[in-house]
Amino acid sequence: LLELGSTPLYxxxxxxxxxxxxxxxxxxxxxxxxxxKRHYTSEEIQVFLMKFGDILDPREAEDxxxxxxxxxxxxxxxxxxxxxxxxxxxxxxxxxxxxKLNRPIRETDLGDIHIALGVLKCCPDVLVTSNIKDLAYxxxxxxxxxxxxxxxxxxxx
Length: 157
Known about the structure:
- By secondary structure, the chain is mainly α.
- It has helices at residues 16-27, 42-52, 64-71, 80-87, 97-100, 113-122, 132-135, 147-156; strands spanning 126-128, 143-145.
């Protein structure tokens, strides 16, 4: 998918916090599940970043740990839109975001807040993620697809 992003087929929007999360998980916890889980070396990550450096926006850097710590201070019944509005640089005027994101934060994976912020900020047509279950609530802003679904989708265009 990332290699196709440097072609005219589609333009990926990759927020830096997602890359930071990938690097952290790849080195510490590993990527994948069960016997398919793989840990990456810092050299492998460097190669990865060099290949895709032209589609990453360094202005999007965010501190995931600080964001998570801040968000976790809110009471569990706080509506998600309230938390996101505190983190956003600007909040859309006259929007119905508060209705779409009225779920309490206790029903949200707080580790994915940076992805929700990225969707609200960048307004993508599609969010490509393997984490469909936790991010399905973003379907009211864009299509949420697994990587395999997205590959089929762009092939159909």
